[in-house]
Amino acid sequence: MSAAKPRPASPVAAAPPGLDALRAAAGTAMTRAYAPYSRFRVGAALRASGGEIVAGCNVENSSFPSGGCAERGALFAAVVAGHRRFTHLTIVTEAEEPTPPCGMCRQALVEFGAALEISSFTTGGREAHWTLAELLPSPFTPQSLHHR
Fold it and tell me: 14, 22, 79, 137 — which has fewest CB within 10 A?
């Protein structure tokens, strides 16, 4: 099974509305990440269907499974704020290549809709874009729980 390839941004395509604000929010969140072990700081920002932006950052812990990803941090904060529908997720990292959400984050996000648009930016200026459905083509969803 091959990984979904990022769609590079087209220089002639218009940026989705609010992408600059999402990128700024994710970038600010990245600077607040707590990543003393991996030194891989990540910021994420979700745009709710009403236009609100909620950000999150990764938080590591010396007991490694206890840490959390930026994408789920943003999702959890958005849910606490009362949001359940999202149109866009933006990620910012210091990596050389744009970074998509990990598998656990993809699964958490799909609960709220597979049509989510995802953009990933590096602090070096590279970017990539996907839909959640491209990154997680066969998700486990609430419908998967239906049985006889």
Answer: 14
Residue 46 DSSP SS3: strand
Dmax over CA atoms of the chain, in Å, equals 52
Q: How many whole angstroms separate alpha carbon 92 and alpha carbon 43?
A: 5
Q: Is the Cβ–Cβ distance between 82 and 49 less than 8 Å?
A: no
Task: Give the three-state DSSP class for 81.
Answer: coil
Query: SS3 for 17?
Result: coil
pLDDT digits (tens, 9 = 90+) for 19-68: 999 999 999 999 999 999 999 999 999 999 999 999 999 999 999 889 99
CB 94 within 8 A of CB 39: no
Q: Would you name the residues annotated as active-site residues? A: 71
What is the rounded average pLDDT of the residues 133-148? 90
| pTM of structure | 0.87
